Structures are given as C-alpha cells and as structure tokens.
Amino acid sequence: MAKSSKNIKNTQSRYKLLIGGFLLIVVVSSAIIYLAEDTLSNFSNTEAEYVVVEEDTEKTENGIHKRTGFIEDTGMREVITNCTSCHSAKLVTQNRMSKEEWIATIRWMQKTQNLWNLGENEDVIVDYLAKNYGPIEKGRREGLKDIEWYPLN
Ligand code: HEC
Questions:
Q1: Which residues on adjacent β-strands are paired with residue 71?
Q2: Would you say the CB of residue 104 lies under 6 angstroms from ligand 1?
Q3: Which of 4, 9, 86, 128 is deepest in the core (most CB within 10 A)?
Q4: What is the tens place of the pLDDT at every residue in 18-74?
Q5: Taking the model in full, what pTM does it have?
Q6: Which residues contact 151 (CB under 8 A, 6 or more apart)?
Q7: Is the per-residue pLDDT at 1 higher than 60?
Q8: In this structure, what are the phi and psi dihedrals at residue 71, rounded to the nearest 5 degrees?
Q9: Distance 102 CA to ligand 1 centre (A)
Q10: For the chain, domain boundaries
C-alpha cells in the first residue's frame, strides 16, 4: 500500500517534470519564433522601404532658380517670397518691363488684387525685376532697309 502510493507520487512528479519541461520548450520556442519573425519582418521592411530622394528644388543651376525659373540675382529671394504665392512665377518671368512699369504693375495688384505693401523690400524687388526682366533693347524689329518700292497702280 505504502509502496504503491510512493509509486503514484513518483509518477506524478515525473509527469509534473514532463509537463514542466514541455511547457518550457513551448515557451522558449515561441519566443524564438517570435523574435525570429520580428527580425525577419524588420528585414523585409527595410528592404521594402525606399528613401525618396527629394530633388532640391531650391537649388539654382546655371544662374536659374530651379523651382521658379527666376534668374539668380540680388532680390530673387524677396521676389520668390512676395510674387509667387498668388500666381505662377511664369507670369512674372514672361514679362519685360521698365522700372516704372513694374512699379505700376505692383500698384495695380495692390489696388485690385490684394497685393500687400512690399515695404522696404519693394526697392530690391523692383530693381531685380527691372534689371533681369527689363525691356529688351532690341525689342522692336529693326527698320527695313533696301526696300524696293514699287508704284501702286
Ligand atoms: C496677392 C496676390 C498677388 C501677389 C502677391 C502678386 N500678384 Fe501679380 N497678379 C495677381 C493677380 C490676381 C494677377 C492677375 C492674374 C491674371 O490675370 O491671371 C496678377 C498679375 C500679374 C502680372 C501680369 C500683369 C499683366 O498686366 O498681365 C504680373 C507681371 C505680376 N502679377 C507680377 C507680380 C509681381 C512682380 C509680384 C511681386 C511683387 C506679384 N505679381 C505678386 C496677384 C498677385
């Protein structure tokens, strides 16, 4: 009787050992799987991830500001800041005006288009515009020469 109860106890403790060992294996292996998967997915993440190399559009290349097309010169920054928020820079760069005409255009925009007071930046802006987007000297077609006139009948 005493012997068999000891046997039972032995079997029980063996069982406990077995179950304990089994549980330990389960826990350890799931931990390993978990960690391995984590590193694996991390790995694939870094592979899938690509860095978008944003082209630096604030660069100037060959004296031209890349994003806006403005000619690089004193006052360009002020012009970009003040003249490109309502319309494209093209509207500015495609124009050629004298200093007075630029001022008149600015006044017109201030009167009718809510352009703000340019304050102390106005001088540098107007100078920049008149210098880089002034009237082309040979804007007009040259006078005709050597014309063969013929009488109209
Ligand atoms: C508050 C808004 C605003 C700002 C800032 C602004 N403009 Fe304008 N500008 C306008 C509007 C609106 C027009 C008319 C656009 C159109 O006709 O499509 C215009 C038109 C123009 C034109 C064309 C004029 C014409 O006769 O066709 C030029 C050139 C111009 N702007 C230059 C400038 C310059 C230089 C600056 C900076 C000093 C500037 N703009 C800043 C609103 C603005």
A1: 64
A2: no
A3: 128
A4: 888 889 998 988 888 888 776 666 655 555 666 776 667 788 899 999 999 999 999
A5: 0.65
A6: none
A7: no
A8: -75, 135
A9: 10
A10: 1-47, 60-132
